[in-house]
TrEMBL record:
The keyword DNA-binding applies. InterPro entries: DNA-bd_dom_put_sf, MerR-type_HTH_dom, MerR_fam. SMART domains: HTH_MERR. PANTHER family: HTH-TYPE TRANSCRIPTIONAL REGULATOR ADHR (PTHR30204:SF98), REDOX-CYCLING DRUG-SENSING TRANSCRIPTIONAL ACTIVATOR SOXR (PTHR30204). Residues 1-68 form the HTH merR-type domain. The keyword GTP-binding does not apply. Keywords: DNA-binding. This is MerR family transcriptional regulator. GO terms for molecular function: DNA binding; DNA-binding transcription factor activity.
Length: 118
């Protein structure tokens, strides 16, 4: 699979895919003339990297996780630990954003009630 094909399959730009490779988040095989060759399994891996980023995991931590992943099954306990720690962070962020949303909804309700009373 070419970089263009995986870009379409993951909805992640070719630039970002090259960046992930440069940072060591993904390891891509090359053909005899140096073109990247992605495998089917890279699609879900790239999507997972993006989800980790989207949920606030730092690139240095994603890189650590990636290195562990490429290290094989013996690294599963450490990867599990990292994901549990990140899950806790995501839940804390979710709680924080819920409070922000509640505050925003209260302010909207205040304005709507104030406007309709006039």
């Amino acid at each position: 699979m070419t970089i263009g094909e995986i870009s379409k399959a993951t909805n992640i730009s070719e630039y970002t895919l090259r960046y992930y490779e440069k940072k060591g988040l993904i390891r891509v095989k090359r053909d005899s003339v140096g073109r990247r060759i992605y495998e089917e399994s890279d699609i879900e891996w790239v999507k997972f990297i993006q989800r980790l980023k989207d949920t606030g995991m730092l690139l240095k931590d994603i890189k650590k996780y990636s290195n562990l992943r490429y290290g094989g099954d013996v690294t599963m306990p450490e990867r599990l630990s990292m994901l549990k720690k990140h899950r806790k962070y995501v839940l804390e962020q979710q709680t924080k954003w819920k409070e922000y949303l509640d505050n925003l909804d209260n302010k909207i309700m205040f304005y709507e009630n104030s406007i309709t009373k006039k």
